[in-house]
Amino acid sequence: MASEQPAERYIELTQTDDKYFTSTFQYSPIDQARNIANKRRVIAIHQALSDEPLDSLPNIAREGFAADVALHVTHPINELTGAAAGLAALWLPLRKALPDMERREYFVAGGRYRDGDMVACMGEYVGTFVQDWLGIPATRGVVQLRFCEAHELIDSKIAASYIFLDALDLMRQAGYFPIAPSLGKEMAWLPPRTLDGVILSPQDAARSRKTIETILAMHAALGYYNGKPPTREVLDEMEQARHWHRNFMWYGPAGIGTTRGLSGFEDYHQIPFLVAFPDRSGSEQGHFIRIGDGYFAVTGGWGYLRATHSGGGLFGAPATGKRIHMRVMDFYRCDDDTIVENWVPIDVPHILLQMGVDVFGRMRHQFRQHSAWSASQWLVGD
User: CA 190, CA 262: separation in Å to the nearest integer?
Assistant: First the structure.
């Protein structure tokens, strides 16, 4: 049965305690017919960008995106304005790199946030990697590129997009990894165990509200961290065990990896992250998405999470003392009371760049690609 209120301590948060700005959140229901239409619209636009001939992409982009669409893409693409810029910097180079590319969506959820209609997608592009992309040498073999996105729609057109592409994982598939080995397991992300993450049927508003409130209650509990070394006692103060299924799956980006259960999450992600960023918290900038859709939910921030890099070890890097901001999303699946699965795209190359580590520069150095030549040109001179 749906809860009418968030968890008790979540309600009692003070402004000082509320490090992740959860206490002011108000769930906004969405008309289910419009929500489903929005999701089908986003799917259709992106399937066309993946499948249609290259010369038809400009028209697809004009019809699918607002003229001044704001595109926020993970490093090194970063900020773009307008569909033409998106074609030039993102979709055309990616299509040329993977000419037989197919887009596979494992998670499509929608909802209302900040008076806007939002749709979030998670999945992978699969294809034969025949042309270098972002300087990553083509392998001539099959690869999979994780994507995670959030889109705001106005009048059936995409007005803003946040696009996470795991380029570091593509480097790994190409046979190179320009940072220290991940603590978690580097593996392909699995789709939801229930295989129902592409939500194209009406969802109960009370269930959707309870799901996002379950997530925000967990976020609020993360804010209980006192900044001290993460001993067992300190970790227990965050009360994470009450929010997660005992065998939950946590899928992290390349550079962090995948974990299972609370002990795996603590050992391979949470503790190293807290040591590196003991003062991390949200900011008034806020999330760009907070939606619940049935048993699924999505949150995301583009610079919302702030921290000082004051501890070493994460990504194999020593402490730098630099203040950084993070680009991150979270895709969740819940059961009636707990979080069962969590997929977490993080712009790791952008975090490392702020810490003084250019993973793309290190990759070029590893490959000895100091010129604009592709790997094949460097190896055989053709």
Answer: 18
